[in-house]
Fold these 2 entries.
Entry 1:
Amino acid sequence: MIWRFGLFDSTFTPLATTHWALLTVLCLPLLMGLLAALFPPKRAWPVLLASAPIVAAGLMLLFAFNDAGLLRWQWAVADIQLSLRLNGLSVLLLLTTQWIGVAAALYTPGYLRLSDPGPMARWLWPLMGTLISALSLMWLATDLLTLYVALELMGLAAVGMLLLSGKAAALKAGMRYLLLALVGSLTYLLGVALILGHWGRLDLQGLAEIIEPGPVAWFAAALVGAGLALKAALFPLHAWLSPVHENAWTPVSALHAGLVIKASLFMLVLLWSILLPDAFYAPRVIAWLGMLAIVWGGLLAWRTDSLKTLVASSTVAQLGYLMVIFPLLLGADVAPLPRALAWEGFWLQLMGHAFAKAAMFMAAGNLILATGESTLKGLAGTSRRLPLSLLVFGIASITLMGLPPSAGFTAKWLLFEAMIITQQWWAVAALLVGTLLTAAYIFRMFRYSFDESAPRQRYQPLAPGMDLIALTLALAAFALGLFAHYPLGLMHGGGV
Amino acid sequence: MIASIDVVEVALALCLTGTALVCLFDRHLLRACRFFVAFAIAMALAWWQLGAIWLASAELLLGAVLTGLCCFYALGHVGSSGSSVLAHDHFSEPWTRIAMRVVLALVWFVMVAVAIGYVLTDMQHSPAEHPLLLAGVVIAASAMASFALHRHLLRRLLAFNLLGSGVFMLLAGVAGTTPTAQVLISVGLLVAALGSMLGVLLIRQLLHLQGVNALDHDSGPKESAT
Amino acid sequence: MMTLLLALSLLWPLCVAGCSAWHAYRTPSSRRDYFSLLWVSAAWPALLLAYGGEAQWTIDAWMLGGEWALNSLSRPWLAFTALLWSLAAVHARGYFAAEHKQAQAGDQDVQRRLQRLSLLWPMTLLGNVLLVVAQDIASFYLGFALMTFAAYALVVHTGTQEARLGARVYLILAVVGEGLILAGFLWAAGEADTLTLQGVREGILIAEQGAWMAALLCLGFGVKAGVIGLHVWLPLAHPVAPAPASAVLSGVMIKAGLLGWISVLPLGHDEVPGALAQFGHVMLIAGLAAAFAAALYGVFQRHPKAVLAYSSISQMGMMTALVAMGLVAPDVWPLLWPGLVLFAAHHALAKGSLFMGTSISEHLPRWPLPLVWALMALPGISLAGAIGAGMISKWGVKSPLYEMHHESLIKLLSWAAVGTAALVSVALWRQWQQREQGGSNPWQWGAWLAGIMAALVTPLWLPLPAGSIEMAPLKEWLGIIWPFPAGVVLAVLGWLLTRPFKGKSPPAGDLWWLYAFIANAALVPIRLIGHACGKIKAASVAAAQSMEKRFMVYLSRGLAGESWLRHHSSGLMMVLAAVLAALLMWEGQG
Amino acid sequence: MTAEWLPITALAIALLVTGIIFVLPEESHRLRTTINLLAAVTNIVLVTLMVRRVAAGYEDIFSFQVVGGVDFVLRTDALGVMFAGLSSLLWLCTTIYAIGYLEGSANRKRFFGFFSLCVASTIGIALADNLFTFLIFYEMLTLSTYPLVVHRGTEQALNAGRIYLRYTLTAGVVLLLGAVLLYSLTGDQSFSSEAGLGDYLNDNRGLLTLIFALLVGGFAVKAAMVPLHGWLPRAMVAPAPVSALLHAVAVVKAGAFGILRVVYDLYGIELSVELGVITALAVAASITIIYGSLRAIAQEELKPRLAFSTISQVSYVILGIGLFGPFGTIGALAHLLHQGLMKVTLFFCAGNYAEELGIHRIDEMDGAGKRMPLTSIAFTIGALGMIGLPPFAGFITKWYLGIGAIQAEMYWVVAVLVISSTLNAMYFLPIVHRLWFRLGPSHGKGSWPDEQRLGRFETHGWLLLPMVFTALVSLAAGLLAGLPFSPLDWATRVANGEYLL
């Protein structure tokens, strides 16, 4: 399990150029964000210009990984050993982060121009930069300290971004999120304290070697798990999520739903697979909660009247899919084949959802922006006037429903295979029910949009490219599904 | 660790626990904030006692001064004209909620204590040898519970800060004041301070916008809609 | 050359129909000629073809593989079919002259009717020709179906209440018949894996269930041939159809059924299995029953055409019996079939003339009445076997039976001929009663006269194998002729005896009314069940809807739990941590 | 010589057109029409090319790996090419028809976009060589038809769309489960593999049966087999070209085609017989046939009657599969094409009546034959073909099915065929009768519900042309069934391949 996270020594020392690429990836978003705060971009092209080196650095790392396998950088500051590593999973998540981040950034100028954001708008840029940097750091981190730093950085940046819209509802939701996120990190820290106290080290590779099952590992796992579950909005600790998304700006929601909560989940999987390599019940508790999440989130989204709540609740349900996989990822009694399938399915689902959810938020944002209504009923007749936004929404929702040819489908296929091999019929049922519920709420929304009997109203024209950016993301989720072999192969590449 | 009971540590531990509990459960918030400042100073002393000078100064600066100022600002005693809306917590919780939180606090207390017991095996035999650690457990558990119990935003913020301190204390207690632990704690302190500042700003802004001091029913209509 | 002729004889009617349709849309109604010479000529190529000699064609591209042939059987058959069609067409030109004028004067209703008729008449003809030459199942079935369904227009032509009833009965039975034929063909062809009628014959012979296949086919064709029980459309459809249509219906179209039998039954084969022979007996009895029952019932009819229809049933009964002999006594068949064909041909022309005669009696030309009635009686007398071709055809049937010693059948057939004679005389009498003066058209009576002539000299022009038919020796004449006077006498006696009873005559279509009653009675419970099902469905839909509504209420109430979750997030987090810790501990210790 | 570009190009063209249409502005009608028609014609050319290559014995395969053990494979085999041919032919017809039908109405961009997508999915379904690829296009079809069903945006249409999705998505889920079960049992199974699943029979009999039930059950929803047919009559609210395509090729046929693939190419006939599922299939199909016909009789509106007729007719295909033997197979395959041609004709006619005269109910059709002769002739051809009368296409298939039933010694099937023919006659002949034999508004009796004068002819030329074409083709398919490359001939070729004759 551990090798999958790239926690082993690399064969080659990284080239000097990769150092620069690493530096670019980690720091440039932050710097560019600060720059943008000073000179807020009004058009998309400066953003594109600024993000080009970041993406280029990401691709460079990808090629470097392709050439050399696992990359590992190490420094010693004072007495503390710091190290970063890049394996297939990190590359994938890094690229996902960058692309979604870039898409959100490109989307932002148009959005801000149209939505009259107020004076706080310029702060969005540094926060966004911080967020990207923190996320990039998280995918590369190899010790609990760095993870903690990245987690906190990300959390605070996320809270800040969510607050920017300045509406009272947003502030309330943000306040709740802030408090819960802080408490969640403290709980995580408590778990880390136990680990540090017992084993005296924080580097994951070392911990993975020396940790054996025992009460300390279990308590630490429980605390870390609970804290991260709160931050990752896992059912039943998800309730802060939808008000937050409902009131935030569209690009912020997209980033948050696509990436931020996934980061906590990533940490949860990472730490648990170190702390609980062969637990039986804990992953199952998560899985059972996941089943509930699928149903609950689906029902919430089904009955809601607000478009953004629908999208946010669907995140809860989609996280349920990921939770359901836990017993296959962790635990001692899983054969290698289903574990490998579940592993691939998990990350594919995660990435696919990230792309699709980001696209969906953007599409929803476009719809809301254009119609001036945030309720589902307000969408009546949009199929005539805003076909492209709806199409994007539709393509994104195909991924969420897990219908072919999307990443959601391919992931579901892999997961099904894994579950069938291990005979987890409940999980299979949950996934199937989830598909149907997803379809139910998605098409409830479409039903409104196809309603032709509604009175015609004025629509605000969208900035050029806003739809196209969303479309690109949604199609990326498709491509990820159809050509899943390559990214999944990348995940193997570092290990075997 | 020395075998005999360190009087200074015990005193500090008692002082910390006492101030923390008052801070957590006093409905009069101005008083609670004062106690919080006192707690932070005691905390700094504790760090000093443990030999972490850097942490002590950080705690003094970030915890006592900055966070304290933040709290008073939230109450309207620093800077802008004060309003007394926040000064007193008027919420009365149903007894079931209180009972549940008490039970949870106990459970957490036991859990954390047991966990630490496993980490420091010698503590199982003589728990009184680590008074600060014990205080940390008590503070963490009760702060957690009161965070879950309270609805008043400032009180929750205070509870969070106390929880942070408790956790740092535990961390230092079980891991010693190694550089790694110090870095962890400093990051935590910084984040707590930043969070508090952000939280206080939010509280003020919310009060300004809507006159609310708790997060009740913010999106109630959304849920009840079918 | 023959191929060209065949193509022409099949395509010509199609062209005629096409022209008719073209005119309907392109020629103004006042100048439209529905029954032009072109139209009349529709059957001529087929007639020519019949005299062109024997030939065979195979066309693979045609449906399931086309096999067409003119052989010793189909040639005479085609000849009399095409001849009667031609005559009837000529007759129709006269018959519809009055309506034609109305149509040109602008009566839209009449225009519509004539249009329909002039379009579907050639189509019916086409079907008939096709089925005669077809040797493969698909073409045969195609011809049969085309003829059957296109003839609907012929029956319904006048559009009156009775016509619609007759047409409906015709159509219902036709559909039933098509179904039976299809089933029989499928079964037989499926067992024998064949696509030709030849194959079907052989298949039925060797198949285990051959008798049942034969039964299905026979019943299916029997609808057209008016086998007893399925004959009910004849007396309902014939009186309402226009005279030329009745003529072809009764003359050649019901013969299609007969041809069907001959085509599919392994007649005259050496080793007819027992079951099949058994079936032959059943068929024989059915045929004779039809022959007698129809005569008995028919004499009480009022409408001359209904009487003639019953006469057709009776005659077809005889032919049924003769066909059945091919199964019962296979050795007689090689001698019998030319006689049967002659019998059929003669009956076709004679019955055609009789039906055309009904139109003459309704529009009497300014001729001496006795002459007219004498002319009218001629085909009837011939039909009873007393003169002309009738005699020869009787003998043609009788002599093989004599040879093979089936005297009892001969007796029965003779008695049936008595019935025929009685029917014919009743028909003439009814015509006399219902005669009307006025305006016979030369086309009309010309065709009629030609028909009579053709009927009387049938053997002369029918291209039967040489030497298969000969004149009856003089000593047998009495045996052939006697049924006619007997029949006439019986009819007169009967009329005299029943005159005191002023009862109503029994309705035409006898069993139909029983069928209709049974079907209606059977429909009642079905409808009830249908209604009940509908009610159950409505109730379940309503129940489901109310359940859904209730569920939605519960659901929205339940979803309010979301806000509870929101306010207890931190508490739940504590619980989760505690639960996870407890579980792990328990699992680790346990 | 290989031409692996062939299948993917056929698919890509349809997808490309979809993209182009979505990008083009709503107003550029002419350009859209041109592109649409061009693509449809190109596809026909491509399929013709495929037909020639398959006839010459080549099979072109295009594939790439999606994830480990699962490939995306397109292959031109005889069966697939047959279905692809039907799709591309009817694509052209329905496109022409739709252009005329939707002239002047709103949302045409959306309509044609999804229409092309629908066809692309159908082509994908036709050429898919394993279950995974098949499922991709199958679900794509489900989704792309939804906007077409709800196109009008009325309450009724939206409800119909919802019900359509309820059925098809649930079926999709069931199908997915079955497919994954199968994959986890056997791995990636190409439709072209000779082996079949016989190797797994001994150990996994129950599981194989279960998978079969899941797969066929899933496909049966689209094939509208009773009791899974509820969506089809409701989906009638869609515009006529959609109904035509839905009924003739895209949706119901996709279901039937799926069952064909499962039985013939995935399980293999021997195994299906061995499992005993074949007879069950035949029984289910028979029930559907009879039930559909009975319900059709009870309908008083034209399109619902046609819809129930479809339910009944599509099950002929299933019935043909259920008859173990080459004749049943030929019948099933030929009916796939024949029914498509005839049904599309009927729906075109129904659309024409509705557009030109506003006729929706059957009792409004009196005398329409005079007003719209070509339409009525086409309708008559379609109806008589449906009844199974020679020389129309329907007869050919009915014949083969009957022969197949006899050879499989399932005599009751013949009874089913005969009864259903009779029932078909009962619901089609009255319409034909009304068209030609009843007096109606064109005879000065009453007036049409909503008469328009759409064109120089009896109605708009674009509406007339495809209808006449399909009517003629369905006539020719029966009349000249013996020609090489006729539907029957091709079906025979496929069946020979399946039975290794």
Entry 2:
Amino acid sequence: MTVDVQYYVLLSMAVFCIGLFGVLTRRNALLFLMSVELMLNAANINLIAFAFYHGNLTGQLFALFTMALAAAEVAVGLGIILVLYRNFRDVDVTVPTTMRW
Amino acid sequence: MCVRFEPSNVTEMNDWIAIGALALVGVLIPFGMMAVSYLLRPTVPETSKRATYESGEIPTGGTRIRFNIQYYMVALLFVVFDIETVLLFPWAVAYQDALAADIPLVRALGPMLLFVAILLVGLAWAWRTGAVQWARTPRQLESDRP
Amino acid sequence: MAATATGPFGFAPAIAVFPLVAFVITLVFGRHLPKKGALPGILATAGSLVVSVVMFAAVAGGGEHHTTLYEWTSGAATSETMVEGIEFTFGILIDPLSALMLVIVSLVALLVHVFSLGYMNAEGETGLRRYYAELGLFTFSMLAFVFADNLLMAFMFFELVGLCSYLLIGFWFRTESAPSAAKKAFLVTRFGDYFFLIGVVAIAATFGTVGFAGEESFVTAAETAIDDGTTLFGFDAETWVTITGLLVLGGVLGKSAQFPFHTWLPDAMEGPTTVSALIHAATMVAAGVYLVARMFGYYALSPTALAIIAFVGGFTALFAATMAVVKDDIKQVLAYSTISQYGYMMLGLGVGGYVAGVFHLMNHAFFKALLFLGAGAVIILMHHEQDMWEMGGLKDKAPVTYYTFLAGALALAGIVPFSGFWSKDEVLFDALAVGLEQPVILAAYAMGLLAVFFTGFYTFRMVFLTFHGEPRSAAAEDPHSVGWAVKVPLLALGTLATVAGFANLAPVAELLHADITFLEFWLDGKYGAVEGLTYHAYHETVAFEEGVIGSETTTMLLSAGLSLGLALAGAFTAHTLYNVPEPSRHTTKLGGAYRVLKSNYYQDEYQVWLAEGLTLPLARAADRFDQTVIDGVVNGTSTISLFGSDRVKRIQTGIVTNYAALLVGGFIGLLLVLGYLGGWFA
Amino acid sequence: MAVLELPDWMALAPALILAGTALVLFLIDSIEPHSTNRTLLSGTAVAGSLSSLAVAVWFTVAGVGATGIENYGVIDIMNGQFVVDQLALYFMIIIAVVTALVTVASYDYLQDHTYQAEYYSLVVLAATGMSMMAASNSLVTIFIALELTSLPSYALVAILKDNRGSVEAGLKYFLIGALSSAIFVYGVSLVYGATGSLQLTRIATVLESGDGAVGEMGGLLGLGILMLIGGVAFKTASVPFHFWAPEAYEGAPAPISAFLSSASKAAGFVLAFRVFTTAFPLEATTGIIGVDWTLVFAILAIVTMTLGNFAAATQENVKRMLAYSSIGHAGYVLIGLAALSADGGDLVMGAAMMHLLVYGFMNTGAFLFVGLAEYWGVGRTFEDYNGLAERAPFACGAMAVFMFSLAGVPPFSGFWSKYLLYTELINAAADNTVLLVLAAALVINSALSLYYYSRLVKALWIEEPLLDRDRLAQPTGLYAAVIAAAVMTVVLLPAFGPVADAALEAAAAVVA
């Protein structure tokens, strides 16, 4: 028996919201990054579920691209977090506030 | 007066109301919790509150030990190059069919070779600029010194 | 050259371009040129004259020329008369009127340039480069104004003429009086031009065109509108034509120094006398009257406007003539005479006497240039003394000056057969003919007629005081000599002043039944003309009835006899009072009237009061309003904006988590708005 | 050589040349690591961007994308994944020009920098992404191009590794960017869910035919579209996704600020123009999601321009002022999308594209001038700039041109583009109150912007310097770039008519 597509969407929405919650509440840059990854994966769930639903492979293929790009994003992000730590001695994203207003 | 209750037809109801409501709740809950705790909690800033907890012992240092930077470098390179292989996967699946469908070899193989070539340029660059160098020999250090 | 296509008319732009080139050359190289730039000016004006004469001949040969040179902007607005779009262009219109005027202007300008050699160069003035450059620009502006084919172009060059006269009147800017006179001339004429500008805008907005001639002209459009009974801006068409016509007339009154804007002209005597000659005879002042003649078809549509023109003209003629009676400065007398004579032209045009008005404009150009240059010669003779009471007895010492001056004076006074007589008589005859049916015009005519007496009087008072009797000063005993550069223009103009009247011997023609009213034929398009811009066309449009006393011949003779008699009477009075060896100041006998006249009817005083007593407090009140209310609002707005800015930028807290929260919050806000509007939650 | 003889994929040449240049730069750096041969590196980057520009211009002139018998028409690549039309070439030109200016200016700005080759290759890679974005015609390619633009940009902003401002800017840019791209991808997934396709024209076909279940997924589609708008808003620095911009522009090296605020913004807008004109035809989409999506852009435009200009008004730091002004200008350009629902909306969009082109020159120039000031080390605030004109009249003259042009003062081209935008908007607003409100907001904000732009000109030209300065150096590259941008801002005046026609034509072709 197949699961209706809306349950996948519910699942992905939930994952997305969890990720969003993490983005809004986590102050650690790494956790922030992980939360964003969670949101991206929510999109992947959607894509694959809908690819199945629509019966074409476009969504699955796009999910692969999303994964690859997410990895690249993580790489750049980690690099930035490294220099952040070097300059501010912390990975708390709320610490750097030299520029505001 | 006669009131007729019609059972609401679940399938006719817009499914996405539920989704929208969930999204809304999913956002409102964290915000609500943050708001409530902001209103309720007493604010007594104290440095010891932010200190590391080490089973009641007086902490002897930060929670983090610094790893060698190269450790991260290699990890990053691995993540990037490893994940690129997912792009090889659909190609591999379609390759046999493409050849069977009389698509010329250049068109079937060429793009992937180009892709790998670009990756190789990246790898070569990373190698040459020392990103994969775990440790440096004294001679290298000497030559790097201006 | 563009001459290939249109024959000699292709050279038309050169008429104005020559002086412009002279202006540039003089401005750039004047310092190094011999005669400090007089030569380019003389050559250029001579060139203009030649080309003008060619144009004149071409028109005489039945040609006319109307072309657009350059379109500098166009708009898509729809006018009140439903004309789509409007074009603003520079174009050339050469018809009998402008061809005649071009010849007059370039001729007078040439003579003034030549005379300047004697008047300015020989007297060792400094700043001659500036003088000749400005003279060139002045000539250029006037010539371009004359052949302008549309109202806006005319307005632009009209303003340029005003600017140049400002520069030239203030030529001796180191003195105290010249700059103030220049300012006065500029401001008073500008006040009139302000109405002119509004008039141009009104005409453009009403008819969607500013062209003078052809099917596309605003004159034709106005005629159609009146015929169709169109309502324009809430007025019926004729009223609106009157209003716009009067607005344009504001500029005319200012430039042509008509009451009440005449006050600047006597002061303008502060400029070099040559400049005065140019201003009075051919350029600045003539521009006003010329404009009325140029768009006469428009005024002809409105009897009200015409009557106002006529009445103002008649009144100014008398008003200025009375003031001229008591002046002691030779140039002042001439200045008031100019005002008076332009009054005649306005009177002539105002009664529908298009030919008479233009005729007088032409004659006046010659004899007034002559008189001014003559006065300039006298001033040279007198070592720069201008008070007539210091002169006397110059008759024998400077015969050329005397006789040419006398010719001019006779023409000015209107003594037969000098040119002024014929034209003034024609103006007065036309006024009388209309006046017999229209009481207002009759009053204007009466004033004009009365002014003839005063004209004769002050003209000959001037002549007698200057040239006759015994010398009353050392300078008059031993006058300076004058050179050929002074004499040649005087002789040329003297001849013209004497014979120019033969261009239109209307009374003679009437008596002999001979076809010798050449100017009328000329302006009537007998030789060549743009359709609609002819005397006949105008005459049919003008709604005035004409009456006669007895027959037309009787009326004409009566009118001519009256004016000649009055002129002679004036001259004779002057003769008895002043043509004595030791004339005395009879004017003082006038008592209170003398003071009033001497003070120019307190015109300056009331205008100064208008400026200082009325306008200044108003301006102060407006300034206070601006300072407090307007600035308050402006400052308030800026304070609120800056305060708002200070608040707005606080959103940017610098903490990235807050950004994420605000971002998501903003996104959800958008989602709610969109969802609400799209009914997603229903 | 005729364009006709080339294979179709060569139509992407402007983007491919940039990609090749980036690879060449990597190769150079691999052959000689940590090379400091600035002339070679910068020269390669400049040559690459200029050849990209030349090819794009050549294609435009040759008639690629234009309809008509002698032209080549729109070129479709990889089954509609990419499309090269007038719109794409127009934006490729903008991007290549800005890249060239930025790389020329970087020659001096990066004088003592360690990571020369990395810097240039990242710039060129980001430019590749932008150029590809102009031609992308599928949500897949769009997302890849978007990330190809974003990822190097994050690194570029943070490239001054020891400068806290730069690192902080990079972090904020990255975090907001990651969040936005997550939202964008989720939007893509929802749109895919509703329509079953990622290729823009096919999405439009599905929406118009109402095939499958798309009619029942209105809410899903609507949320997806809104999320796509979020992604666009991030790239164009529009409210509420603008929070990264003031910090990123302030903290980044000045040439990078110029690059991001001009080229990256242009890329964001071409993405918006492409997606929303191609994939979501107004009537069909409105029928499904129940609301007109141009409304969102109208709201965003008003809020963005108001917030940008208001926040800019009281800034003390010049670079930050320019950052906020750049947000304000994004608001102006958003009008081009907001007006699409009205008759003549294509003309408004064309006018907005024209404004982007002009903006590309004047804004790049302004940021490069700030780069020049940083090179001189005169400080960052308005007071620090006081009286600079005494020492550097040419550069300050150019800056005055940029400021007045940005403010929209006649006769500079910034005025004409804004005026064109305004008149087209008024024409389109015949019976549309929303657009009238937009026009009013445009006018009010322009007036306010004059205040802070002229404040800078006043500081440069009128105020007395706070302290005596020595002679200022005249770095060739920076000077050349600033002056070139100023010259282009002025030269666009006579060329304004034809270029604006090209923009209007390109817009009309896409909207039709």
